[in-house]
Amino acid sequence: MGACVPAALSAKTHGMKTDIEIAQAAVLKPIAEIAARAGAPADALHPHGKHLAKLDMAFVEQLNGRPRGKLILVTAINPTPPGEGKTTTTVGLGDALNRIGRRAVIALREPSLGPVFGRKGGATGGGYAQVVPMEAINLHFTGDFHAITAAHNLLSALLDNHLYWGNALDIDPRAVVWRRVLDVNDRALRQVVTSLGDGANGSPRETGFDITVASEVMAILCLASDLADLERRLAAIVVARTRAGKPATAGDLEASGAMAALLKEAIQPNLAQTLEGSPVLVHGGPFANIAHGCNSVLATRTALALGEYAVTEAGFGADLGAEKFLDIKCRVAGLDPAAAVVVATLRALKFQGGADAKHVGVPDLAALSQGLANLGRHIENLKRFGLPVAVAINNFAGDTDEEHEAVRDYCARQGVEAIVCTHWAEGGAGAEALARHVVGLAEGGQARFEPIYPLDLPLKAKIEAIAQTIYRAGSVSLSPRAARDLRRFEAEGWAGLPVCMAKTPYSFSADEGLLGAPEGFVLPVREVRLSAGAGFVVAICGEVMTMPGLPKVPSASRIRLGADGRIEGLS
Questions:
Q1: Helix, coil or strand: residue 215
Q2: First-to-last C-alpha distance (Å) of the chain
Q3: Cα dihedral 263, 215, 502, 480 sign
Q4: Is the torsion defined by CA of 200, 205, 209, 213 positive or negative?
Q5: Of 93, 168, 234, 476, which sits most exposed with the smallest number of CB within 10 A?
Q6: Is residue 547 part of a domain?
Q7: Where is average pLDDT lowest: 6-15, 85-94, 499-508?
Q8: Which of the four pLDDT bands, split at 50, 70 and 90, describes residue 413?
């Protein structure tokens, strides 16, 4: 979810401090001091130790009448093994805005334990552009994900209990669509059979697990405007269909009240700090490849009310996270972004241009030139939304001036400025040039934000609009099941919902090996899911999984406790 893993690995190679070593050496300020800097009084805090706190909902709701600051979206090119450093850049930009006298509040997603113990590592940035305390945030944090997991699985248990005790709603057991969730990558749970046995236990049903970040409960928490809206959305979750074909909801099962009770504290935004003492709201954590990929509406609105600038990120590349941020979150929450920053590295661009991941640190203008098409596609897409765009070149040791100049020249031909940033090594000071440029864009009044499709289009047409306009697909191929379900959703009154695309983040297409800026391909949609409570329809493309697996050598194998009890190996 955006941690600068390659920079951390580079640090080890060059004898520099790793991300966790930098974080553990920091002297953190009391959280009340960070809150005061943001304009939040001490009595609005529910402290979680010395350096973390939740903001009281009464205080958050009081902010609704305040003028809003300017919203800056940080996104990136399609992710690659060499890395881009989106979260690191978001943190660096927020720190830099504060350094140049612009009061900024950062709004990020919470890390999921799946990536922390899997391939990607944590989600608190890297180097000297980090959110701290790094270990607490990357692991259990304030318990939000546990609460979401519990609320989701409570609904699963109440559904199965209803079936056991006579099934008064006449639910068709073969038409149950509500799966369980767990916040760990575990491919063995993708498809399971529950209720095996005889007697009281015997009512077998094929189902499966998703990762918690893909839960509709997570999406609801992130899109809810207050506690009442949270419970209303929870009640609207469709868990199954009756034998007559009608939707059965969490409200029908009388589950939404207890679920909301479990989420009462989780809905409160979390306050943390950067290494430089900038306030950061870290709240919610849906993945952008299988969910809508943005932090909570409450956290973003709070950041906008507390700061002149709110700097936020959307997950993975701009084709996924930024598209959903703009077409779903901004539309639901009434947000108007003032500018967008696209993060890229020379290494990632060379990988997009066909260079082997092992050799992307070697100067290669030919591969770089080929890979720039990926960056150009994202710039063009963001302009289609009516946003002014800047490019942040996240600098790595070994980058050459000649290659930087090639990127700047390419971006200038696209009508945008590319700025080399050194925030990983220098903190906010290394992103001051980017901050000044972003201020110029945001205060220049250039933004004319407009979603890419209107809500009155049919659901299939919305999928096609995203596939053809953002991905540059030639056509969309719906499986018979997906086509049938879209017709059903429309007949039941869900035609006006936006669409949340689920696909590989590594390509504009559904084929992760198709790099650069492909076009004219067929986008296969194998399945669609109704998220009535969250307020969108999920279109699952290609082979993307809603429960990830662990890599051959997971990050968990490097994480341990040192002799002094400190956590080691977390990245």
A1: coil
A2: 12
A3: negative
A4: negative
A5: 168
A6: no
A7: 6-15
A8: very high
Q: Are residues 301 and 326 in the same domain?
A: yes
Residue 286 lies in a domain: yes
User: How does residue 12 score in pLDDT terms, banded at 50, 70 and 90?
Assistant: very low
- Domain, as residue range, for 511: 459-541
H or E element, residue 560: strand 560-561
What's the pLDDT band for 454 if we cut at 50, 70, 90?
very high
Domain CATH for 244: 3.30.1510.10
The tally of domains found in the chain comes to 3
Binned at pLDDT 50, 70 and 90, residue 83 comes out as confident
DSSP string, 302-348: HHHHH-SEEEEEBSSSIIIIIHHIIIIIHHHHT--EEEEEEEE-HHH
Q: Is 161 exposed, middle or buried (0-12, 13-18, 19+ CB in 10 A)?
A: exposed
Six-digit token string for 533: 């409570």
State the catalytic residues. Answer: 86, 88, 109, 120, 288, 316, 396, 424
Number of helices and strands in the chain (H, E):
21, 24
pLDDT, residue 519, reads 97
Residue 169 lies inside a defined structural domain of this protein: yes
Answer yes or no: do 110 and 18 share one domain.
yes
pLDDT of residue 116: 93
Domain boundary among 232, 262, 292: 262
Which pLDDT score, from 0 to 100, does residue 202 have? 67
CA nearest neighbour of 439 among 137, 85, 15, 100: 100
Same domain, 279 and 394: yes
3-state DSSP assignment of residue 222: helix
**337 & 273 share domain:** yes
550 belongs to a structural domain? no
